[in-house]
Amino acid sequence: MARISNTRIIRAKGVGKGEDFSEENFKTETVEFDSTLKDGEILVRNLYISLDPFIRLGFEGQDPKTSPYLNQTVAAVGISEVIDSKDLAFPVSSIVLGLRIGWEQYTLLKDSNALFVLPYDPKKGDLNKLPLMEYSNALGIQGLTSFAAVKATIGSFKKDQVVFISSAAGPVGGFFALYAKHQGAFVIGSAGSDDKVQYLLNDLHLDAAFNYKTQDMRTELQRLAPSGRLDVYVDTVGGETLDIAMEHLKDKSHILVIGNMAEANSKTPYVPKNWKMVISKSLTLHGFTAFHHFDKFPQLWEEIGPLIESGKWKSQKNTVEEGLESAPKTFVDYLRGKYHGKVMIKVSDL
Ligand SMILES: NC(=O)c1ccc[n+]([C@@H]2O[C@H](COP(=O)([O-])OP(=O)(O)OC[C@H]3O[C@@H](n4cnc5c(N)ncnc54)[C@H](OP(=O)(O)O)[C@@H]3O)[C@@H](O)[C@H]2O)c1
To answer: 167 in ligand 1 pocket by Cβ < 6 Å?
Structure first.
């Protein structure tokens, strides 16, 4: 029986909806576990963990006395190396993208559900010649979300279509923006700081961008969209932004419903005011979750990997903070909107 010492970060305290989140919600501990595997189990050493909005949900509305989530390792998406395996499809040394790993050095996975071998040869490196961390951004779940959402709903953006994307400086919104630009659309993005707006204009080369915290969204959409009208709205936030976007959508246009960050930070659910426009403008709403589209990972890697490698696709900003111990503070800052692009924690070298 082999025992492994594992440093991990657990959910120490729940948080109410709309309540502020702090480092006190987390606790770091070191525990030992038996690493002898049963059939189908896989043991991974975690290299990068991704910071994502859903992590907060695991802390929300939990009754401290009965919650099954508190005192558990914080769940995460990440990139790991297989170090022991009882599943032939996941051999030792393969590099994997895992959607059920955690904020810890090692994760023992009971099965291979939501685990994907990356096109990365441990001897030769990445077959797309890209840094491994791209698989936590454009070639990871963020890229898959945007890539598969377009394929599964509108098929593609069309040349000269006017596309508005909220939270465009984040990894999901940023991928949508690059994808729409790549396909010839006119792209407008919104973000929560002037720095982020500069990133959208100067680094991602969007056609137009505005700061939704300091500028009036109605005025900006009217001013920035040619003829003040939109063909597609990519909604990552919900709330009032969705209402205002509806006012600017053309008849028979599309809304891709991807996330609702505005609701995540608010105590009371937002009641849409412009719902009747879905009827009067014949709008099509496409709800989407990446969890129904994992089969599109190989297509994402094949189509977008070479574009990034050749420089035809702009790499979004990657911020990598060092060490598991940096995760709680980085995550609190991330939720407060400090970062743009993708934020990851490097747990260990390959
Ligand atoms: N459907 C799916 O399968 C799927 C998969 C992955 C992610 N998502 C969703 O897609 C969205 C973007 O994901 P991501 O990973 O790229 O996250 P992200 O953009 O990195 O999320 C953090 C950012 O959200 C913005 N934000 C925070 N609170 C906000 C609020 N109250 N109103 C508006 N914006 C707020 C902040 O940017 P600003 O400073 O610019 O406001 C912050 O930097 C999220 O809603 C996420 O849940 C959906």
So the answer is: yes
